[in-house]
Structures are given as C-alpha cells and as structure tokens.
Amino acid sequence: MVVDLISGSRAFVSVSETGSFTAGAALARIPQPVASRRIAALERHLGERLFDRSTRRAQLTPFGRDMLPSAKRLVHLADAMEHDAKRAKLRPLRLAVPDTCTTRGLAELDAEARALDVFLEFRAAGPGERAELVRTREVRAAITAVPASEGVWTVPLGLAGGITPPSDVIHLETLRAGRSSRPPRRVWIQPEDDVPHIRDQVIQLRDSVGLRPAQVTVADSLTAAAASVYGSADLLLCSAEQARELGLEWRSVGGIRLARGFDVAAGLGDDAQRLRTRLCTAIGRCLGVR
Questions:
Q1: I need a labelling partner for 123 at 20 to 30 A (CA). Which of 16, 29, 86, 266 fits?
Q2: Where along the chain do the CATH 1.10.10.10 domains lie?
Q3: Could you report the per-residue pLDDT of 209-245, keeping only the tens digit for each?
Q4: Of 84, 65, 83, 68, which is closest to residue 11 (Cα–Cα)?
C-alpha cells in the first residue's frame, strides 16, 4: 500500500501542478490512463475526491487543496530515499586482501566488481591482521586464511628457485647439508604462509627428512624471501603464479600436498555471500587460482 500511496501522490502532484491530466502524466513520465487510475485509487483510499472533474481543467477540490502539501512531502521523501539508496550503493566495500595479490589482480577484480555495481576498496594485510580488521570493523570484509579443506578457494603451493630442478618434484631430503663448507640450502616461508596449517606441515616434513631447524625459515616479507632466493640456491615456498611473476622455476613438493585455503569473513552475512558467489571467479583469479 505504501508504494501505491507514493505513485498515486506523484501523479496527484504532477496533475495539480500542470492543471491537466495529460500534461501531468507527461510530467510524471507515465501514460495518461495510468495517471488517472492512480489518482482514482488514491481518492478511493482517502475517501474523497481530489479533483473536480466537472470542468475541462483538472481543478482541485477543497479536499484536494488540503491534501496537496502532504502529498508533496511524501513525494519529496520518496525521491530523497531513492537518491540516498543510489549513493549507498556507490559506497565502497572495504576488503582486506592478502599481500600476495598483485596490482593487476586487484585492478581486474575491481573492474569486474564495478560491472556488477559492487565498489571495492582494498587493504592489503597479513593473514592474522585481516581477521582482526573485520573484528574491529576497520573493513567490512576480509579474505581469510583457512585450511585448504575448508576453503572456498585453494591455491596449491610448491617450491621455486632460480635453478631449474632436474625433475618435476622437489624432495626436501635433497637439501640435507653435506660435508661441504657451503651453507645449507634453505626453504623460505613468506608471511602469507606463516599460519599453522601450512607452516607446521613444512616443519614436520623438515624434521622427518633430517634437515636442520634453520633450513626452514619464515621471512619478514615476500620481497626479503625472494631476494634471498635470487642470491643463492635457496627455495621459496609459493604458488605457481607467484613463481611466474618472480621469474623462478616452480615445482611441487614431494611427500606432501601444500595449499593455501581462503574464505570470506564479514560483519554482515550479505557481504560475505556476495563475495563468495557474485565475485567468486574474480577473487579466485586474484588469489592465484588457475
């Protein structure tokens, strides 16, 4: 009934301003028969005539003159609400994303979201910080790190280095320190993978194949980890997409399956659902899902 009151009041105000049902309908951008039906429905609802139809012009009745100010206020409020709704749709959805997302990946995600009338604003952060940003409401949603078995998106991990490996799989036992005076090769874990469901698996494998504790090291940043790999025979734990971006040779890890898992955390369930469904493929590409 509220919608009928608004559309009826809009037709009523337009006809009263022009003094003609035909001109008023044109002003309201509706056909003249529709304007007449809406005004008639409004009159039935209010219980009195708004216009004197005995004259050629659309002349207000005394009741119609009394009701016109209220009708104008209702139309004004409806217009203001529609305007506010359009502005609200344009308000960015602040999204915390992994530091590993590239500028190109984020730009492509942003472009695809805009095509769906979703406007994103990104904040790059580590896995622990992203969940905290949602909790403190500094962002509306975050791409969170979860075990691969629980993830909406999964990204396989392997080892990458500057030297082409002799096979398609790298076994950690081949990194055992020998009697050489050269420093033992290390596996660098970047901050995005410094989470229990990934880090602990690598450490357990390290111990089971007899590597030294220092041969698996968590780096302060991806940049620092990549720099260490460029300058040595060390290896970086990363996705195949990251290895391509860094110009490194990537191989899977023997004896273990490692993968990043990602889900969405949000203050509002609607935000999480929108990201998981409408932007699922675009987010996956940004995370390195191929």
A1: 86
A2: 2-90
A3: 999 999 999 999 999 999 999 989 999 999 999 999 9
A4: 68
